[in-house]
Amino acid sequence: MDIRDAVVVVTGSSSGIGLALSEALVEHGAFVWGLSRRKTVIAGGEGRGSFRWVEADLARPDAIEAAFGRIRRESPPIDALVNNAGWGEFGDMEKLSTESWQGMLAVNLSAPFLAVQEVLPEMKKRGRGTIVNVASVAGRQPIRGAVAYCTTKYGLVGFSATLREEVRADGVRVTCVCPGAVDTPFFTSTSIQPEPRMGVHGVVEVIIAAIAAPDDVLYEEVVVSPLKPLVM
Questions:
Q1: pLDDT tens digits for 24-55?
Q2: How many Å apart are CA 85 and CA 94, to the nearest integer?
Q3: Under DSSP, is residue 173 helix (H, G, I), strand (E, B) or coil?
Q4: The domain 7-224 belongs to what CATH superfamily?
Q5: CB 72 within 8 A of CB 120
Q6: Rounded Cα–Cα distance for residues 62 and 4 (Å)
């Protein structure tokens, strides 16, 4: 897919991977729609793409439906969707609140499912499109103190693999990117402090490569890790 002039939706665009990805996509000439609760501002310019922010609480199905409804009304068809938004709360299983459990399920697993439902019919009709789900190495290996977070990320990895087999014959590509520890605000207030952490741009480059790959090439699942061994 040629990223220049492509319409790309990025969830969780206000910080971390989502913000860096949105900035990079604009630099490549894409028209980016960013979905997040906090406002995101990214400047366009000559030879660059553009960015538009849509306020959306991704824990709410009605907010997701409204956001994509607006995009469909105001934009050409969506070429790529990046389900990047996520949050985690860590600690002993018995101390995890029901609210936190349900919140992580909503943002980390239900939101990607609902977002895909919004874009998939048009992608299948057009016979092309790319969906990138940003999971985590926590979706491939258990982490002590991260029962709920790991559960949602294992679910997202499984969702990606199953969806991929369902839609690849329709020309729709599904990529799952599983980053290790990334130097973003994600860990600012968590009890888990992994080291070392890699820069955000390595993950961004992988996502862009998956979107920009030739139409007959599919990045299925990509693990992106810091070079040095992880210490928790």
A1: 999 999 999 999 999 988 876 556 789 999 99
A2: 26
A3: strand
A4: NAD(P)-binding Rossmann-like Domain (3.40.50.720)
A5: no
A6: 31
Tell me if residue 153 is catalytic.
yes
For the chain (232 residues), the mean pLDDT of every run of 10, in chain order, is 96 94 96 95 74 97 98 98 93 92 97 99 98 95 92 98 98 96 63 70 95 97 81 56
How many angstroms separate the CA atoms of 79 and 129, rounded? 5
Strand runs (DSSP E) across the chain, as ranges? Answer: 7-11, 31-36, 50-55, 80-83, 129-134, 172-179, 221-224
Tell me how far apart the alpha carbons of residues 185 and 168 are, in angstroms, rounded to a whole number: 34
Task: Tell whether omega for the bond before 196 is within 30 degrees of 0, i.e. cis.
Answer: yes
Q: Is 199 in contact with 183 (CB distance < 8 Å)?
A: yes
Catalytic entry in 149, 154, 219, 228: 149
State the maximum Cα–Cα separation within the chain, in Å, rounded to a whole number.
54
At residue 182, φ and ψ (nearest 5 deg) are -115, 140
> Angle between the 61-74 and 111-126 helix axes, to the nearest 10 degrees?
30
Pairing relationship of beta strands 7-11 and 31-36 according to DSSP bridges: parallel
Q: Which residues 6+ apart lie within 8 Å of 149 measured at CB? A: 88, 89, 90, 104, 108, 136, 138, 143
Point out the catalytic residue in the list 39, 95, 124, 153.
153
Q: Which residues contact 4 (CB under 8 A, 6 or more apart)?
A: 28, 29, 30, 49
Residues found in the chain:
232
39 flagged as catalytic:
no
Q: Which residue has the tokens 């939706």?
A: 9
